[in-house]
Every structure is written in structure tokens, then in C-alpha cells.
Request: fold
Amino acid sequence: MRPVYMISGGVTKFRKASPDKDFRLMVKEAFDYAMNDVPKLTIDMIDGSVASYFSDHFTRQLMAGIMVQDYLGLCPKPGKRVEGGGATGGLCFQTAYEAVASGRMNICLAYGFETMSRVNTWKGNEFIAHASDTNFDYPVGGFYSGYYAMMVQRHMHEFGTTVEQMALVSIKNHGNAIHNSYAQSPMKLTIEDVRSSPMVATPLTILDICTMSDGAAVAILVSGDMAEKLDIKPVKITGIGTGTDAMRMADRPHKKVPLLPHEKEEDYKDLKYPGVHSFRGGRMAAKLAYEMSGIENPVEDIDFVELHDAYTSSEIQTYEDLGLCKYGEGGPFIEDGHSLLSGKIPVNPSGGLLACGHPVGATGLMQAVFAFWQLQGTIKKHMGNDKLQLKNPTRGAIHSHAGTGTYITVSIMETV
Reply:
């Protein structure tokens, strides 16, 4: 495979519905922003695209991707849509990577969007619940806040995780977003604020859960020759990994933990895995991405992570899947400050889904854009301030997650 680089990206501000902007215009805004950042790039040079959007229900439009392709002026060039629940954006990013790595394209546009907030919250939750088993889980009242509440209840039972530790994730991510001009919900919070907000599904309050959003994001991926020709500071994609699991958690077998290079079997000799407390697909995605990019210990070898935090609880669970700490130690990891901007490995310096918002098809690409700007050292240029700019980061990870862990992607990006 050829080396693949990201050379530009764009994000709209994530927000509640804007009646004057449909999905095509939102993608066009993010696309134009990305194009303007690479003066030598013209639309004629783009070989094709990959579209990312989760649900036809939200747009009330089948084949919305081809409408965007036309609106951007990319017809009759190749294009396709990918879909994989909450991991749709991450899968799109990796599909664009594959198009360039294979030699099929020299420049591939990855774009994603969602218009979620144009329906009432209850209707949005119903649409999203169709990503669970509609023959078994959905008819008996299954919905995602309920699933995640159940999972974290088990995490709390087995490992002693506390609601206060979950609240610290919300405080961190909403606080980071105060300095992110693209974020939907920046705010300064306390543990009391999080715990006293309306209860959604015990123990998850409304401030433990991300917000339905409208928004779009794009990433432009190129070959090495094109990166050199376009004379822009690129970021190299050095590893990609994808993991999966059965949709119904009751169908997931108990097996040994897939170990990362810095772990030992005795670390988990008494652990029932994956149970309903861990995401086996997330561990597989991390393992494959780390192997491809040569990462031995993620806490030592990665400078930051943009992680899919649809729930405060899932951020804590994912610390463990990514090997940032041992299974069962995710609560103390946040409590000890390791994932803060000033910590051992900052997690969600952008504010994550909790604070930025979660227009599903755009989210994984948003993470790629924010990681790209971090590694370029251009946070101040794009956000108007440097409060979130980490000091000389050289390697970052982005993590995208679907369902209750049915599709999960991890991609590694590095400075050149």
C-alpha cells in the first residue's frame, strides 16, 4: 500500500437545526473551508469521494450522497456512501484511506453530515434505536441511553466506578469546548451540576449524554506525490484498525482479552470479558491500528486521543479498550486527571461529542479534522485562540464507535 496523508479539513459549527441550511449546503461550507486552506488544490484534481451519513430517516431522502456529490460539482467522478451507525464517519475516513493507499485515487474527499435535530428528541431516539436488533431488543423498549445505562451499571458493580467519576468526563469535555468555536455546548460545570441535571436512564443524566445535532465535516486525503506537489504541511495516516461485535450483547461470547503489547495475561486472569462492561470491537480496532503504526504503549507513544464519547460512561469504558489503563481502572484514570489537557494523555481536547455535538455522519470526520489541526499546530488559526493547542504533538489517535460496540474504528495520525 502507498503512504496516505491528510492535507486539509473543514467543519461547520455543530448546532440545532438551521432552517436555511440543508445537508448539501452544510457539506459545501465545510468543503469550501478545506479547499481554501490548500491554495494549489482545485476541484478538478479530486479523483472521487466517500460520503458518510447514518440515517435516511433524518434527511427524509434516499441517496442523499449523490445529491451532495452533484452540489459540490464532483459528478461524474466516482463516489460511494458508507454507513455503520455512530462509526460511520470513522469508516468513511478509513475507506478514503483505502482508496488512496490502493492507488485507485490520488486525492479522495471524505465528507459526512447529519440533520438530526430537525425532529423531536423522542423521534430521533426512535430512529437511532433502529440500529439495535429490531426483532428482539427494539420491540421491548430498547433505546441507546438504556443500553449504556445498563452497561455502566455493570461497570460500576464490577469495578467500583462512580457517578462522580463519570461527571468528571462531562466537566472536562464541556470545559475544553469553551475554547472551541465549532462546539455546540461549551460550558463550565461542577459535579453537582451534572448529577442534578434531569435523569435520563439511571445513572445517566442529561449532562452525561451527547446532543443530537446538525453539522458536516470533510477530510481530504492524498498520496505522497500529491502532498509534495500541493506544498502543504501534511499529516500521515500510519495505522487503521476496525473491530466488530454482535449486535445483541446476549450473543457475545466470553473469551480472553486480546492483549496489547504492554499487557500480560495475568493482568486479567479473573476478568469476565467482554461482559457488558467492555467493547471487544474497540480493543480489536486499537490492536490492529497499533500494530500497523508500531505503537507499543499508547500512553507513552500517543500524544492525545479524540474519542467517541456519546456518553460519559463510554469514554471511561474506552480508556480501557484503548489500553490507556487496565480494564477496571477507567474511573480512577479520569479522577487522577490523566485525560485532562495537562494530563498524561489528553482525551477529547476538542470537547468531544458531549460538548461539540453529535451529527452522526460528521462526527468521525470532525475528530479527524481536529486531530489534523492539532498535529499541524494550527489550532489558533482555525479556532481563533490557542487554548486547546497541545505542545508539539507528534502522534494522535481518533476513535469512532457504533451501536453498543458493533463497529469501532481507530486511526493513527502522525506529523511528517
